[in-house]
Please model this.
Amino acid sequence: MSMSSAHAKTYDVVVIGGGAVGENLADRAVKGGLSAVIIESELVGGQCSYWACMPSKALLRPGAALEAARRVPGAGDVPTDIDVAATLASRDNFTSDWDDSGQVKWLESARIDLIRGTARLIGEREIEVHPTVEQAGLAAENLRVHARAAVAICTGTKPVIPPIPGLVESRPWTSAEASATNDIPGELLIIGGGVVGCEMATAFADLGSKVHLIARGPNLLSSMEDFAGQAVTQSLRERGIDVRLETEVTSCALAGADSSDLIVDDATSVPGIRTKAALSDGSTIVADQVLVATGRQPNLPQISGVEFARDDDGSPMLDDSLRVQDTNWLYVVGDASGRAHTTHQGKYEARIIGDLIVARGESNFGSAEPADLKADTLAAPQVVFSRPEVASVGLTVPQAQDFGFEVQAYDLDLGAVAGAALHAHDYTGQVRFVVDVRRQTLVGATFVGQDVAEMLHSATIAIIGHVPLGELWHAVPSYPTMSEVWLRFLEEAGW
Ligand SMILES: Cc1cc2nc3c(=O)[nH]c(=O)nc-3n(C[C@H](O)[C@H](O)[C@H](O)COP(=O)(O)OP(=O)(O)OC[C@H]3O[C@@H](n4cnc5c(N)ncnc54)[C@H](O)[C@@H]3O)c2cc1C
Model:
């Protein structure tokens, strides 16, 4: 149970960061009989609820639904454009207008205490909380919190801003500002061709912006199977988005509304200000807004007075249970660990590590079994809500080969399946199943096409369960659904 004095409190588990991961970890600790507190510097619920998953998907859903309806013969006259005001209002609704009182209520019901402020580690199991600016009046002095068993750092990530001359001065958006904006730029320049870049390009094209997407690599979505990025590139171009591959923004400069060069100290003080971006292909783009989507890095709290092994970049080195090496009390979980990059995967880690902290007990000396986080390496699913959607789980062919598997890839035309033809007129899509030849089990799957997201979980189950192809053969997909692509795959694999 917690003990308090005027400016010091003690809990079994102290969780720094109240995003989805911190909430889940604290919940498991309390369910296991420990006391837990979450220290949160912004909104309880974190990135996902207010600046990432929920708002971005709310912006993307109307365009996807309209396009789907337009592709059904007999659906009648379906509007070509989304209702921008209604879409923004729906986004506001999904983020509860950036008000976290609902999540705070949930914390109360889960018997998790909340301290608002910025935490920093000042010694072994010792945390100091600084009130954030808005709260400074409430708590004049810093608060000390002591953890009896464990401290879990669940502080997520922050965006990487590349060192492009003039970029910072042009006041670029990160995905947080893009997700929360009410101003739809006439012309938007997105730097970065990963998941965030592709989703934001789709969303802002739907909202009416002229979008330029600049990617350094030869393909979009470079961590996925090649055909996924190729399909998304083609589709983005077909909907009028200017996609430039193997191209970099080399410098940015402020420009006036008429695109003339401008020198100002404070970009916000000039109405209609634009950004003139020079590109490595020799061209120039003048945009109303730049959005940086070039990756994220762990957002670790300040740590002083604690000695432990660090990576080259200074972040703590973790063992197999996400515990910082050379400590028996400090964990880094979720996006902050650098291993998870999605909410669902971070929550999976949180559930497991929360239970592990309970099992290891107050002394936390590692008597319990190591954590089984096998889904992190073998079967982490991810959906890109672009159009077409990309849904992947497990290993791509190159990743499987790096792991030493002898694999065979089976490529299937999703459009050739009866269920797809009924789903949408002229349906196009592709699926790749990656099979471990020796064990005859699935180790990876990638689906590309309209509405494939919901097909992913069947592949996740097959991979994590090591289901032999001979057994999968008895999992009969319903007719006429797109899942019949599994049957085509098994036929090709010789069953
Ligand atoms: C644009 C975008 C779209 C995304 N879409 C999806 C999606 O559709 N599906 C999906 O699964 N994932 C998606 N993600 C990824 C997802 O948002 C993250 O995986 C998830 O938010 C990570 O959760 P977390 O709890 O680890 O970190 P966060 O949600 O970042 O929470 C960390 C919390 O810690 C707090 N904090 C930080 N430092 C301190 C400190 N020193 N003291 C106190 N508090 C602190 C922060 O204020 C924050 O609230 C998306 C990401 C982006 C950027």
User: Anything to note?
Assistant: The chain has a mean pLDDT of 93. The two ends are 58 Å apart (CA to CA). Residues 53-70 form the longest helix (18 residues).
